[in-house]
């Protein structure tokens, strides 16, 4: 079905978009020019994300501007000015130094969306340590694995999260020498090896001088999942700030005076690149909501905070659509000027729902953990093709590469061939933008495998139209996208197989009308175990207690005959084909590729 095109007016803009003449800006764009939007550390001492995001606004006399408007889960409200954020993050950096935590060491955060999360991120970067956020809905196992791979030296968390998720795995992460508790700690700190963050911050100096920072110094470590093996730690550098600023300007159309709300949690890359850095780099006010999704609450936040630019996710859009437009109509949403979404395909219905209910279409954009920033977008001034993720950002070169049945890209004399318009292939990007990941921590081989013939392979299947718009087709691998979160099937299978009843496990994503995909596991049992409902519930609980609600399967089916390759690997694609009632296809091919 064709959904037509949403034509953008060239007159009557409330605020003229930052990007009006797309082709002209693409032609003249250089990354060196983009970099001039930032100041650099005083005295030409390099580029530090936290300085650019906070301190330079204070230095320019804008310390009184509100940086963060925080809404607590239970109705509390706080405002943090740029000057306050600058001082507290200075103290955080000073506290790290007082504990002898060195530049380059990893500081993890396992926190709800509370002000200390933002302070920890900025303070870590000021100290030239590497910030690595963990999603608070992870269970102990994903947390332990990520702390282990990242060799986390410091963890900032709360007492409740520590007790529920970290205390039990502490011995498996010996590099973790400092646990800092945001809020109060009710037991004897010495016994548990933890310290109250507030005490450390109170003892730290109010000012911290950022040491010279090379734009190529590591700054952020974001974990992402692959089809097999452990999670991958994508390393980003301070130069990423150039991209966060650039995309904030063109893809999110941020203007001075905007109130911006990114609903993503900083446990995922969108929640740091756009839930922390991009708005602060633009010196505007960002809204942070500690609460979980609730349609009335969300519309209420847009209304009461006068949100002008809103960045959310297709799952959230579908949940809002499900709630019904009368909830939206009960609120004044006229403060909104630009709405965008990311993380999974945005159905054309979602784009049009925005037009009808919010009075604005939703601008889909595409990127991933490895790219560190938005790569392909529907821009404020450009026509929208509902269902398309848009066109490459100025400065970004994107192509579509043909794959063979084994997922390989044909290379002739080191050169790869782009797919003709309309033909499906793998989305590939020309390396060189500043927020591109620099490696997978400790796994150079997996990093190198991402490149072919001078292109970075994204792993996503797409098509490009004659007009240069890109259309998402699907993932090129078995990774699951549920509620916008990437989940590695291997991580889930491994957790299930720790249960004594489980002999083999295969995990796939099955279609879900709201979350896009839901995690479903198929398990075969060891002799002596019966496939009962009790065991199914026990396995669901077992997986949830280890993996956490964000990763655990929602459904488990018993299958004594799981499809395996000769070498003993589960053929997830056969499971998926069976589940969807599709032809299983050529098993000899699957045999090689699974
Ligand atoms: P993550 O690394 O967790 O941010 O997930 C990135 C993946 O999410 C991409 O590789 C895509 O598979 C998917 N994704 C992100 N944005 C979009 C979009 N606009 N349309 C379709 N899929 C998307």
**Average of the residue pLDDT scores:** 94
- Under CATH, the topology of the largest domain can be stated as Rossmann fold
- At CATH level 2, the architecture of the largest domain is 3-Layer(aba) Sandwich
Distance between the termini: 33 Å
Task: Give the strand order of the largest sheet, numbering strands 1, 2, ... along the chain.
Answer: 2-1-11-10-12-13-14-15-16
Radius of gyration from CA coordinates: 24 Å
Total domain count: 3
Helix content: 25-40%
Overview of this protein structure:
By secondary structure, the chain is an alpha/beta fold. It folds into three domains: 22-366, ANL, N-terminal domain (Rossmann fold); 396-475, Luciferase, domain 3 (Roll); 480-580, ANL, C-terminal domain (GMP Synthetase, Chain A, domain 3, 2-Layer Sandwich). The chain contains 20 helices and 29 strands. A nine-stranded mixed beta sheet has the order 2-1-11-10-12-13-14-15-16, with helices on both faces. It has a five-stranded parallel beta sheet with strand order 4-3-5-6-7, sandwiched between helices. Strands 17, 20, 22, 23 and 24 form a five-stranded antiparallel beta sheet that branches. Helix 3 packs parallel to helix 11 and helix 10 crosses helix 11. The two termini are 33 Å apart. Bound molecules: adenosine monophosphate (AMP). Adenosine monophosphate (AMP) is lined by residues 224, 269, 342-345, 364-366, 368-369, 389, 458, 460, 472, 475, 481, 486. Adenosine monophosphate is lined by residues 224, 269, 342-345, 364-366, 368-369, 389, 458, 460, 472, 475, 481, 486.
């Amino acid at each position: 079905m064709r959904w037509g095109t949403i034509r953008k007016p060239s007159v009557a803009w409330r605020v003229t978009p930052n990007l009006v003449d797309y082709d002209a800006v693409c032609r003249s764009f250089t990354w060196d020019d983009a970099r001039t939007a930032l100041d650099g550390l005083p005295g030409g001492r390099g580029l530090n994300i936290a300085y650019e995001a906070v301190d330079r606004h204070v230095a320019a006399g804008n310390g009184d501007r509100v940086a963060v408007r925080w809404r607590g889960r239970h109705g509390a409200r706080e405002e943090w000015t740029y000057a306050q954020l600058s001082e507290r993050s200075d103290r955080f950096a000073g506290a790290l130094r007082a504990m002898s935590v060195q530049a380059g060491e990893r500081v993890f955060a396992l926190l709800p969306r509370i002000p200390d999360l933002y302070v920890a991120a900025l303070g870590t970067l000021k100290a030239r340590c590497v910030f690595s956020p963990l999603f608070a809905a992870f269970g102990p196992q994903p947390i332990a694995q990520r702390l282990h791979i990242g060799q986390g030296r410091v963890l900032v968390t709360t007492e409740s999260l520590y007790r529920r998720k970290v205390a039990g795995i502490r011995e498996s992460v010996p590099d973790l020498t400092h646990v800092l508790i945001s809020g109060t700690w009710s037991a004897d700190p010495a016994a548990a090896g933890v310290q109250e963050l507030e005490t450390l911050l109170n003892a730290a100096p109010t000012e911290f001088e950022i040491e010279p920072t090379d734009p190529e110094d590591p700054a952020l470590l974001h974990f992402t999942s692959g089809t097999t093996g452990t999670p991958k730690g994508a390393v980003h550098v301070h130069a990423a700030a150039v991209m966060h600023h650039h995309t904030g300007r063109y893809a999110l159309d941020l203007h001075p005076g905007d109130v911006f709300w990114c609903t993503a949690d900083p446990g995922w890359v969108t929640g740091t690149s756009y839930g922390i850095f991009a708005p602060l780099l633009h010196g505007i006010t960002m809204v942070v909501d500690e609460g979980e999704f609730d349609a009335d609450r969300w519309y209420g936040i847009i209304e009461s905070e006068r949100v002008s630019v809103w960045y959310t996710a297709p799952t959230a859009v579908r949940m809002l659509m499900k709630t019904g437009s009368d909830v939206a109509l009960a609120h004044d949403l006229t403060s909104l000027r630009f709405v965008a979404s990311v993380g999974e395909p945005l159905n054309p219905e979602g784009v049009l729902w925005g037009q009808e209910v919010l009075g604005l279409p939703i601008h889909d954009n595409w990127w991933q953990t490895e790219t560190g920033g938005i790569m392909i977008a529907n821009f404020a001034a450009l026509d929208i093709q509902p269902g398309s993720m848009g066109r490459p950002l100025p400065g970004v070169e994107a192509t579509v590469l043909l794959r063979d049945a084994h997922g390989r890209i044909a290379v002739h004399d080191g050169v790869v061939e782009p797919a003709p318009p309309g033909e499906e292939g793998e989305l590939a990007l020309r390396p060189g933008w500043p927020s591109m990941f620099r490696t997978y921590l400790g796994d150079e081989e997996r990093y190198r495998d991402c490149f072919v013939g001078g292109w970075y392979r994204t792993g996503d299947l797409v098509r490009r139209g004659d007009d240069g718009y890109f259309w998402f087709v699907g993932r090129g691998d078995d990774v699951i996208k549920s509620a916008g979160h990437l989940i590695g099937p291997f991580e889930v299978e491994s957790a299930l197989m720790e249960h004594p009843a489980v002999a083999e496990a295969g995990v796939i994503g099955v279609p879900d009308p709201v979350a896009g995909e839901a995690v479903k596991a198929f398990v075969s049992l060891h002799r002596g175990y019966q496939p009962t409902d009790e065991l199914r519930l026990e396995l669901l609980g077992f997986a949830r207690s280890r993996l956490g609600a964000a990763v655990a399967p929602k459904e488990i089916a018993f299958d004594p005959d799981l499809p395996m390759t000769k070498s003993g690997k589960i053929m997830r694609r056969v499971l998926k084909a069976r589940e969807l009632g599709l032809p299983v296809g050529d098993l000899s091919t699957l045999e090689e590729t699974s």
